[in-house]
Design a protein that fits this description.
Keywords: Exonuclease, Hydrolase, Nuclease. This protein is α/β, with parallel strands linked by helices and 208 residues long. It is built from 9 helices and 6 strands, in the order ααββββαααβαβααα.
């Protein structure tokens, strides 16, 4: 059994479709996919994945031509998005006109081939994407991850200081690096924001 097999184990062997294809492509050096999701809440076990945005990062370059955004169509009879719409702006009507969830995940996995996943508080993205992969492709998503929030947190630890929660929010961190403010809670915009922050952290010399 090779290193890759030992890392991903049975999940890789059970995967079908786009997830199996994702596992068949080896990681490329210094290639990332900044990803953001919009959801009805923070718990993948009970909340819904509504939209996904992504932007490739190759070395120190953001590849806007490879960026993508998809809204996932809700199943018939599924509960309303409720008050979460006030954050992400995705209404029940917009969800009804979205893309089939399996097709949406195929798009994301295609973009993620050969790349590590990059996000701000990546636990949210990986949790919802893992659940979707189990639903549609028979296995969970195992992917190497870089987290801009964790990277920032380690900077505070190195300075022997515990940051306040608001000090680690994406928009607060971006402001400290002199990055332009964007409107929050759109998956594509937030993915781009994370990609820009990653490169700003690189420029500031933060360890990966």
């Amino acid at each position: 059994m090779g290193i890759f097999d030992s890392m991903f184990g049975g999940g890789r062997r059970k995967a079908t479709g786009a997830l199996a294809e994702f596992y068949d492509v080896p990681l490329q050096q210094d290639r990332w996919l900044a990803v953001d999701v919009e959801t009805t809440g923070l718990d993948p076990n009970k909340d819904r994945l509504l939209s996904i945005g992504w932007v490739p990062v190759d070395g120190d370059e953001i590849i806007l031509g490879g960026a993508g955004h998809v809204v996932l169509r809700g199943a018939e009879g599924e509960a309303s998005v409720g008050e979460s719409a006030t954050l992400h702006g995705l209404t029940d009507d917009a969800i009804a006109e979205g893309v089939d969830p399996r097709e949406a995940m195929e798009m994301v996995l295609h973009a993620l081939k050969g790349r590590r996943l990059l996000a701000h508080f990546a636990k949210l993205e990986t949790g919802f994407l893992d659940k979707a992969c189990r639903q549609h492709f028979g296995a969970g998503l195992k992917v190497e991850v870089a987290d801009t929030m964790q990277r920032e947190y380690r900077k505070y630890q190195a300075a022997d200081r515990e940051p306040r929660r608001d000090e680690l929010r994406l928009w607060t961190v971006r402001e400290r690096y002199g990055l332009a403010p964007y409107k929050a809670h759109h998956a594509l915009t937030d993915a781009l924001s994370g990609a820009e922050l990653w490169l700003a952290q690189d420029a500031a010399g933060l360890p990966r």
